[in-house]
User: Fold this.
Amino acid sequence: MEKIYTIPVNDAYDSDCECPLCDLKEKAEQNFLDYYLGPSLMEPDTRKITNKTGFCPHHMGMLNNSEAGRLGLGLMLHTHLKDIDADISKDIRDAIPDKAGLIKGRSSDYKAKLNKVADKIDRRVNMCPICEKIDDSMAHYYDVIAWMFKHDPDFHKKFANKSCCLPHTAELLRAASKLSQNDAAEFLTVLADNNDKNIKTLTDDVEWFTLKFDYRNNDKPWGNSKNAIQRTMRYLSSDRRDFDEQQRK
Ligand SMILES: [Zn+2]
Ligand SMILES: [Zn+2]
Assistant:
């Protein structure tokens, strides 16, 4: 198995993050943001793609937060706007229905047309080479994890000691669907055990968080419940920086 994948996987499972896959995703995302904010923004091959795709709303926000690559971004956006204009503006105008009159009568054809143009706009808005590259990297990581679980006894132990968020549990289930039935059974047993433990802890912690609002519990210790809401939301949604109680302070 290629080291370029096994090393980051081991690093993520060694770190004290809540979900190693969220950790891997965040690092991949940062790499690709740096890539697209760097000299690649001016490279003809990259520009051929980004002029067409632009970036999704989430990643445009992240690109905007960086001071780097302003000129490259401006040049890319200028060409991208022209591309969007050529591809979309006429469709919007063409979707304007004829007004119903005495001769023409009413027709509901225009409704389908409007929805079609709206769907096309949605597709264009969500096109994003950063998302695509992250998805590619993550797909490799899911397979590598399933492979290491079987072939690397050290990793097997690490995997058993670390749970992950719910969206990434779904991805690991998909990776396991490519394994033999016996391999999938072993992998899933550990995954399910981890998930049970994780949910039980979060449920108890959130409950204690709510019980702390009862004045009779005023003087009792918080235990691990202070950030139970954020931890639960991260479990349910994948790690999100805006749920991070530490960074919000
Ligand atoms: Zn995750
Ligand atoms: Zn994106």
